[in-house]
Structures
1.
Amino acid sequence: MSNEAALAIDLGGTELRAALVDRDGKILAFAAVPTQAQAGPDVVIGQIEALAATIHGEAPALAIVGVGVGAPGPLDPLAGIAVGPPTLAGWLDVPLADILERRLGLPVRLENDANAAALGEWRFGAGHGARSLVFVTVSTGIGGGVVVDGRILHGRRGLAAEIGHMTITNEGERCMCGVVGCFEAIASGTALGRRANAATAPWDGSALRRLSGNGQVTGRHVVEAARLQDELALALLEEEARWLGIGFTNLLHLYSPDVLVVGGGIANGLDLMAPAIEATIRQRAMRAYRDVPVVQAQLGRHAGLVGAASLVLFDDGGTLAARMPVGPSTYPDARRDFNG
């Protein structure tokens, strides 16, 4: 058995997580701390360094071959640059991969967190054995990644497959991006919770409000109430399933994957929504696309860590070659240290 492992970092706006992952996708050590997201990049990168030391200390006999980082977009995976993630204050064109390589003394690969999760599910989870996969995470928002013929679909500057912001209607609530009709604004867990709150009121005796402690109802409460056969929750979940089915049909037509994998908190209700999702796909998809399985993700909250590790261990995504030079006209300050 090999003693090699990758150090995987999941850089979130709320939590910073790290793991040592072997070539079988097994997590050998794990640690997490709250992200000091408002403190700027220098502080957060210091957190990454400290967490890396902590995690290596748990398994000092392992040979760490490199570091894979999953981070919120927008980012440029080829250049290794965090372009401007909205959940991290002060991050603008931060050459994160270069900085970590200098400080950790290891090769570093940077990837969008949703793409990293897609890779994890493709290599070790629900998409194992498929040549192509679309991964959709349905939680606070909707995101995802696409693996085509064994490679991440990056597009220009790594911005491809922004699944949550495809337009699926011309009505409804305005999205956080400012546009009406985004998939995320209509079918996310947040949107499901919003519809549940509009249909109930505190102390009205409904199952949804009881489960929420008579506070704000979330998408998770809707799934829980539906499992108790609450009629309102079942109706809300059926409406959610129809919207998801419309979005999934678009993704099937666009990417023609072997499998569509659904993760995130709302995926815990996928079995309840499956009949309505499948009916919507049968109604809307062209015949050749209707037999693509829609399945629940298997790796849970560790998908991004496992996928980030695979960037190093397996050259996933086809970008392990030396990162592209960054021209001054594109990122004028990216090759100097972000501190000045």
2.
Amino acid sequence: MEFEHQPVTKNERTWGLMAHLASFAGYILPLFGNILGPLIVYLIKKDESEFIADQARESLNFQISFLIYAIVSGFLIIILVGAFLLAILPILQLIFVIIAAIKANDGVNYRYPMTIRFIK
């Protein structure tokens, strides 16, 4: 769904893109960098644009959800399913973040699959 009541500006699309790509901070700051990146974008820009706030919230919820899935997968290693899940999760995460970033850059209100919406 696009924000049809107001056209999404180039600046908003850029920040929406950054809200998703900021999750790659997890490669620099393991553990919580993938959550801190979108959180920083959200806290800085949430009052400036509904689109930016929405995309930053969506990215943040997705990253928190995937952290939970990784923790559960870690416990499931005991029954061997977890090893498969831990191998697949980073690939899915990368694919979904790239898709979300492209959609945000197009001005589309993207929704990640497999996301628990903690922050509304």
3.
Amino acid sequence: MTDELDRAYAGLDALAQLTDALTDLRPAHADERPLYVGWGMLATVHRQAAAVVLLHRHGFGHETAPNRRSMLEHAAQIWWLAEDGTDAVESMNHALKHKQQKLREAADDSGISYDATIADAVQAAVLPPTSAQTYNHIGHLLKRIGPPLHMIYMSESMLTHASLTSAERFFSGPGTDTVELLTTPRYPSDAPGPDTRAPYIALVLTWFAMTAFNRLLSGQPWTDALQHIAQEAGIEDTAT
């Protein structure tokens, strides 16, 4: 496990250096929006990875499930931008309009006052439908990328949200004479949890996000470096 953690730290550092060195964002296509939206999502992935490492080093690997889930969501969206470009951006605009409307309804229901300028502008926007809108649903998108990613997402969601799965990490022994209540999480000994591997999971997801984002850049300048990092970390066959 120590070797895996060392490779995770080294890989994440190498990926961060690539990002820091990118000073000229030149889009691969005429529509620049996928690149800039992708950059915002990639920056989020990197910050979530840093949070995972920080929490793990302080003994809170279990608590990084929400971070890992967020990383997977953002990495998948970058992949979508690289695949569908303009259609992906327009689909995200549809999702934004829907969510803004739901937010407005919730604020109105609770009697909260707010400046309606942005909400009015979003609601008034006329957006042409796109065939890619179905991929605003994260489950549909992950299945398109690869069914195993959807399974991983579902697993992380069960640890992230209040559920029997998240609760049972903190007690043991149901059905026996002794039930032990725990203050730190415990995973079955025959099925090690993702808490101990959190930094490596973060590395794989960051690498996947950067591989997708590289396709949005003119000339795909990170290709060789990403391949080298994957080989060093042993993840070259991880992402699709």
4.
Amino acid sequence: MDIPFSLEGRTALIAGASSGFGARFAILFAAAGANVVLGARRTDRTDALAQQIVDAGGRALAVPLDVTDEASVVAAYDAAEAAFGTVDTIIANAGVAAPGRATEVAADRLQTLLDTNFKGVYLVAREGAKRLIASGSREKGNGRIVIVGSITSRQTGDGDSAYAASKAGITHLGRNFAREWIRQGINVNIIHPGYIATEIQGDWYQTAGGEAQIAGFHRRRLQDIESLDPMMLYLSSDASQMVTGSDMVVDDGQSL
């Protein structure tokens, strides 16, 4: 694994670490030298992944985390601090989808999506910021928060209005957090991946519709999950000291 930026000495809490982007980031950050805290509701998966990281020589801890529940968020940070000290690198990645046209999505599914994709980012980032400020981040300048958005936040389309709007919401939220904490030594940035095959899409890309979507991309291919690695490491590392309030598109040109 190519590691362009070191995270040695950092402690990263990754929300939504049981699959997809979060699981990838956990493996990546451990390889880059960070202490990694894997937060998710599916603890059987995070326990197994944490053990895999430890067996490979890394440092990892799996913690139960429901990002929609403030008490669960607080408990996850408590466990992380007990194991590794203050969390200085926060990856707000947990998210769900509610596919379907706006006229078809039930109100309870919409509420679940907003609770996870917006409220969850708010609670995870806010709790991390509170603890960073209390630990002296203003003087250290060591706080890093990366919010995982989506290129859908910049597009229109059929079948993902609620998801796209939630990602647009956390983009603006992230910029406001960056402004609010700019003098507290905390950098907040947003990364917008393109379309990548992960568990959240199920078998969509094996269907005729999914194949047609790929054929419509300029490069006629899906983006690889590994293509996010350099930007994620950069935004989480000391190298990004002067970068805050930015939203970065990494999508293989899909949104052009």
